[in-house]
Amino acid sequence: MRSSAPISQRILSPTTALLLFLQAAVVVTGGGVRLTVSGLGCPTWPRCTPGSFIPVPGQAEGQLHAWIEFANRLLTIVLILSALIALVAVIKAGRRDILLLAAGQFLGIFGQGILGGVTVLTHLNPIAVASHYLLSTVLIAAATSLYSRRRHPFKRKIAPQKINIFSRTHVTLTAFVVILGTVVTGTGPHAGDINSPRLHLDIQLTAIVHGCAVAILLALTIIFFFTKDLNHVTKSRLLIFFIISLAQGALGVIQYLQGVPQLMVAAHLAGSTLVWIGAWRVWLSVHQEEMENVK
User: Fold this and answer.
1) Cα separation of 274 and 269, whole Å?
2) What integer pLDDT is reported at residue 206 of this predicted model?
3) Distance between CA 170 and CA 19 in Å, rounded?
4) pLDDT score, position 55
5) Is the pTM of this model over 0.85?
6) Using one digit for the tens of pLDDT, what is the confidence trace for 180-229?
7) Are 173 and 217 in contact (CB under 8 A)?
8) Which of 40, 162, 175, 212 is the most buried (most CB within 10 A)?
9) In terms of Cα–Cα distance, which of 89, 186, 58, 54 is closest to 133?
10) With contact defined as beta carbons under 8 Å apart, do 109 and 83 qualify?
11) Which of these ranges, 39-48, 250-259, 284-293, has the smallest mean pLDDT?
């Protein structure tokens, strides 16, 4: 049966879904650039080389590395176009309630471009790399909220105090785990370039601290799941979050024991994005009234 909603409203679903997918994808592809040691394939910014926006034959960094890095830059352009389409769709639908979220996506991507330039110009300084990634997590959370609110205006739900405290603690601890993950990355072997600086920390200690934080998060998730008066939507999302986080934790242990091979690190990076989206969806289920047909 054809929807009676205006096309400007119906187009919000595919456009916001695509935007969320691309925000997550650019994190994974960015990790791919680092794991293939292509982080300085294009050694300047915004140009790829001092005289060209695209890779040129005979680059000292290697032709393959240059094109890998350049492809990631091209994906950012696709992401900008996706954000612009979503913004136009929001305006056409008259959805002033999500206009700020849509505009924030568009502006945030330009902020990412600037941070990406800083990352290249500082020769992949691990703090710059971490900042680049963490801004992506903010944009992913906002894109998740935008997608969640695509069909109906936001209606705040007043949760019981205990559940409210649990939800705040849960999403905060997840963010802390993600931040610790960037510390492990900045200390580990996959810098993106053999001459890039590293954080001068003990890799074993940072990995253990990160693993302990994950274990605490899993325990908190179980306790949160069995909290009295928790609605069924939050319960189902907590279950999904627990399964993803458990798999992510197991993968983290395996990759550490195997000497952090690139493919496992890439899978772990993709998993961290899913964990963060899952945590944010749990947060939304507590604080956002669930409307009919909104999943």
Assistant:
1) 9
2) 94
3) 25
4) 87
5) yes
6) 999 999 998 887 788 888 888 998 999 999 999 999 999 999 999 999 88
7) yes
8) 40
9) 186
10) yes
11) 284-293
Q: How far apart are CA 112 and CA 131, in angstroms?
A: 9
Sequence-distant (≥ 6) Cβ neighbours of residue 193 within 8 angstroms: 37, 39, 40, 123, 124
SS3 per residue for the chain: CCCCCCHHHHCHHHHHHHHHHHHHHHHHHHHHHHHCCCCCCCCCCCCCECCECCCCCCCCCCHHHHHHHHHHHHHHHHHHHHHHHHHHHHHHCCCHHHHHHHHHHHHHHHHHHHHHHHHHHCCCCHHHHHHHHHHHHHHHHHHHHHHHCCCCCCCECCCCHHHHHHHHHHHHHHHHHHHHHHHHHHHCCCCCCCCCCCCCCCHHHHHHHHHHHHHHHHHHHHHHHCCCCCCHHHHHHHHHHHHHHHHHHHHHHHHHHCCCCHHHHHHHHHHHHHHHHHHHHHHHHHHECCCCCCC
Q: pLDDT tens digits for 64-111?
A: 888 888 898 899 999 999 999 999 999 998 899 999 999 999 999 989
What pLDDT shows up at residue 292?
40
40: tokens are: 């300085």
Task: Find out whether 159 and 167 touch, Cβ atoms under 8 Å.
Answer: yes
Q: What angle do CA 192, 143, 37 make, to 5 degrees?
A: 10
| Percent with pLDDT over 90 in the chain | 57
CA 85-90-91 angle, 5° bins: 100
